[in-house]
Amino acid sequence: MKRIISAALAAFMCVLALTSCGSSDGFSDSEKISAKYSRDKDISVTYNYSDGALEPPDGYNSFANSAGGFSLKLFRGLGSGKKSFAFSPASTVLQLSMLSNAASSDTRSDILKALGGGTMSPDALNACCSYFKSRMESVSKTSDEKAEWEQVKLSGAMLADDSVEVKTSFLSTVGNFYGYDVFRYDLDGESAEKKLNDYLKDYTGKCGIKFSKSDTLSTVSASEIKDSWLEQYADSDVSEGVFKGSEGDRKTTFLTSNESALKTDKAVGIVKYTAKNPLKLVLAAPKNAKDFDEYVKGFDYTELSALLNSVDITKKATAVIPEFTIEQSGKAEPLSGAVKSGGAASLFESKNSLSALSYTTSATLGEMYEVEPKFTLDRSGINAEKEIKNEKSIVVKTDETLSFDKPFIFLLIDNESSLPVTMGIYR
User: Fold this and answer.
1) Distances from the Cα of 188 to the Cαs of 33, 108, 173, 196, in angstroms?
2) 4: buried, middle or exposed (CB in 10 Å: 19+, 13-18, 0-12)?
3) Which of the chain's ends, N or C, has fewer CB atoms near its CB within 10 Å?
C-alpha cells in the first residue's frame, strides 16, 4: 500500500510540475529562453530608472532627436489611409534597437543611423533605450501618490523558431536593457498561434499572426497607457456638438478647457498634461481643414519641434476637443513597410541581416508586428478606468478659441525627450 501511495504521489507531483510550466495554451518555461537572464542593477551600465538612474546617459539628446525623426517617418508611412488609427512609435524604436544587437555590421549601421544619428555605439543606444523605457514605466509607480491604475506598459518579444540557436550574450543584453521576452519554439507548430494569443491576451483577443515554414524570426510589440488628466473637467465643461469627419458629420461630446496653444505657419495645436505619467497630449491640425492629408504627408520632426517650441505657458487659449475612441482591429499589424521607408530596409532585405544573433544558424527577420494600442480620450483621461471630474469648472474666458471639430493628429509625448510614445489620426 505504501508503494502504491508513493507512486500515486510521485505521479501527482509530476503532473503538477508539468502544469506549472505554463498554461495549456501558453509558452512553457523551456520555450521562454530569456527567463533566466535578469537585469544587472548597476545603473552606470544599464541606466535603468527604477534602479536609481535619474539622469539620462551621454548621447541621449542625439538619440531623442534621431528616434523622434524616425518616429515621424513611421507615422507618415502608416498614416496615408483614410481611417482613424493609433500606433506606438516608441515600441517600434525599442524593438528596432533591440534587433541592432543581433544585426550584421551593415544592418546595425543602418539602425544606429536611424535611431542615433550614426554617432552612437550599440552600447550607448542600449543605455538610452533602457533609460527611456524604464522611466516611462516607472514614474507613476514611484510618485508620492502611487497610482492604482495609471500606468505605461511597453511590452515586446522576439519569436524565434526552434531551429535557431540564440547567443547567450544577446539574451543577456535583452534582459539588461529591454526586459523583453525571447521565445524559441516551433513557429509552424499546431499550437503556435494559441501560444501567441495567450501571451498577448492582455492587449488583444486574437493577434492573428500565423507563421509559415520559411519564417525563422519575428518580433511583436504591445503597449498600454492609462492616466487621468492633471486638470479635470467639470460637468459644465462637457457639451454636445458635431464633429466634421472625413466620412461626414457625427454627433460628438466635446470638452472645453484652458490649455497652452501651439502654432506654426502651417498649423495650430494645444498641449494638455496627464496626472501621473511624464506625458503630454498634443493635438495638431492644419489651419485650413482642406489641407489635412497634405499636412499629414509633411508632418515631420521639424514641424513637431516647431509646434512644441511655440508654446507660451503664460498665455492660455480655450480648447474644445472631442471625446473619441480608436477602435482596435484586434490583430497585430505588420510594420516592415514603414520601417523600410524609415531607413532600415536592409533588416528585411538581407538574408544575413541578423548574423550576430547566433553562432550556428542563420535567422532571417520575417516581420515586425505591433498590436494596435487601445486609445480612448474622454473627460477622465486617456483609457481611464474610472470617472474623475472637478466639482466646479476652472475654465476662464480667453482671447482665442481652438476647436478640434475636424480631423487632427494626436500624440502622447514624453515630457523629457519629446519622443512620441503613442500617436495617430482621428478622422
Assistant:
1) 18, 28, 27, 12
2) exposed
3) N
pLDDT at res. 212:
80
Question: How far from each other are the two terminal CA atoms of the chain, in whole angstroms?
Answer: 73
Indicate the length of the chain as a whole number: 427
Cell numbers representing residue 2 in the block: 505504501
Instruction: Give CA separation, 307 vs 16, 156, 266, 377, 400, in Å.
Output: 58, 31, 10, 21, 17
Closest by Cα among 196, 162, 182, 160 to 33: 182
Confidence grade of residue 17 (pLDDT, cut at 50, 70, 90): very low
Tell me what the mean pLDDT of segment 125-130 comes to. 98
d(CA 400, CA 411): 22
Contact criterion met (CB below 8 Å) for 265 and 282: no
AA letter at 2? K
Cell output for 170: 544577446
At 21, list the grid cell.
Answer: 510550466
Give, for 252, the enclosing helix (H) or strand (E): strand 248-263
What residues does 217 pair with on adjacent strands? 160, 365
Is residue 417 scored above 80 in pLDDT?
Answer: yes
Enumerate the β-bridge partners of residue 409.
284, 425
For the CA atoms of 381, 275, 150, 76, what is the dihedral angle to 10 degrees?
A: 60
Sequence-ordered list of residues with C-beta below 8 angstroms from that of 401, at least 6 positions apart, any chain: 317, 318, 319, 320
List CB contacts of 327: < 8 A, sequence separation 6 or more. 84
The answer to whether the beta carbons of residues 101 and 167 sit under 8 Å apart is no
* C-alpha cell belonging to residue 80: 496615408
Q: What is the distance between the alpha carbons of residues 265 and 27, in angstroms, rounded to a whole number?
A: 52
- Here the cell at position 164 is 535557431
CA-nearest of 406, 409, 413 to 297 is 409
Distance CA 116, CA 128 (A): 9
- pLDDT category at 23 given cuts 50, 70, 90 is low
Residue type, 280: K
Let me know if 17 is exposed, middle or buried by CB neighbors in 10 A (0-12, 13-18, 19+): exposed
Under 8 Å between Cβ of 329 and 336: no
282/272 Cα distance (integer angstroms): 7
13's CB contacts (< 8 A; 6+ apart) are: none
pLDDT tens for 172-197 read 999 999 999 999 999 989 899 999 99
Mean pLDDT value of segment 272-280 = 97
